[in-house]
Amino acid sequence: MFGGTTVEVTNTDAEGRLVLADALAASAADSPDILIDVATLTGAQIVALGPLVGGVMSNDDGLREAVVDAGRRAGEAMWPMPLPAELRKGLESAVADLANLPADSRGGGMLTGGLFLQEFVPDGVRWAHLDIAGPAFNESAPHGYTPKGGTGAATRTLVQLAQDMADGRL
Predict the structure, then answer these.
(1) 129: which strand partners?
(2) Is the predicted pLDDT of residue 42 greater than 90, yes or no?
(3) What is the pTM of this model?
(4) What is the rounded CA–CA span in Å between residue 82 and residue 73?
(5) Nearest C-alpha neighbor of 125 from the set 38, 42, 29
(6) Please, what's the b/e burial string for 98-122 (b: 16 or more CB within 10 A of its CB; e: otherwise)?
């Protein structure tokens, strides 16, 4: 991986997190104050929160709450999710620095996806991950601002966060 971390690929269907992890690690070159990524990372997000609500994980409680609040004000449902340290041991590998999925990946898949990504966030950077696997594509009738098909999920939240930064709220 970018930066030298080795990863055992235990499931090739979890390839997106490898690309995103490299981007997070590479962001260190830009010395960001805040780092926010958005991805349709896990099917587990849909199991946990359904098709309308995105999950927000963060290494900073204040930033996680700011993202959830920005989503609410922008008309996009986001729900705060934890990054339980106890689940991190599932990413341990005998042949690499970590595995891309836990050996027993039956539960907490969205959370372990977030824990995997957190490993690549530059030290000291406030980071939030938005898992939008459910809200990214609407298979039902249009509702509110949401069309049928691709929704652009999290776009309004990101615009609201940019405005919040400009206004000194973040």
Answers:
(1) 37, 57
(2) yes
(3) 0.95
(4) 22
(5) 29
(6) bbbbbeebeebbbbbbbbbbbbbbb
